[in-house]
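Quick note —
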Amino acid sequence: MNDNNFEIDLVYLWVDGSEEKWLAKKNTFLGVLDTNTQVNCKGRTANNDELKFSLRSAEKFASWIRKIFIVVDNQTPDWLDISNPKIQLVDIVEILPKDALPCYNSVVIEYFLYKIPDLSEHFLYANDDMFFNADVQPDFFFNVSGYPIVRMKRKPFAKWNYKIEKLFKKELSVYKQTLVNAADLVERKFNKYYSGKPHHNIDAYLKSDYQTAIEEVFKNEVTATVTNHLRSRQDIQRMGFLYYALAIEHGQLKYVTKQESCVVRLQRKNYQHYFDKYHPKLVCVNDSERVSDSDRTRMKNFLKNLFPHKSKFEL
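Predicted structure written out below.
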């Protein structure tokens, strides 16, 4: 694997939710919605230049990546050098079915990543707020058989905890419900339940298994949710595609520590603490409905110091 005997690509989703043209299109289609909910908060689409710094991290710590695909909605980062042969913008209209458009639901967009033209069989997927923070080799993501290493947080009683939480709170958060949907689907179809939670960081996939999951295994469930133009409780979180890989023995389960994969909440003040304490190989700086603009500014300044040198992907 360290000899790079197969190609590995990297896929991002990116959007600038503050662009007037994009925001006007969204508001025309959906109406002006409450902007501080789980499904429609500013943090879902805020552009804080995280992608710029994530690309810097990829160039620094994972230069073996063949090609980087950035899935967009008729937008281009103004700092991005799209003439770089390693960079390819992919508009969502190229990969989503027509009845899914327009789409402001990243879960639905993720269903169709396997349709990206020229995407390699082995690929990594990251949100733009996910970063490499140490040198990693391909065998960090794929085992000797070429199957993805499926990273999860150990939650042995998650299934029952969700049931108890739902009993007392009446309903789970949208994110948790989509996870439950994914785990329940795999349990019904394969009689296997994976209680581990996503590590919410850069994940590895096989394109062929991804395609089979969407077009065959979960076809009915996916078809029923592709018209969810905004996040919905009926959606299937992409972790379900990795649960599927584990169920058919096309993946290797690995429970992570914070030294391997760490999530930093933007509303927390001392970001450096997490880096100094854990030295994580992968890190996500997570935005949400609890984050303020001052938090975003603080994190952007932190990222500038963390990755100060321009990458070859920048103008």
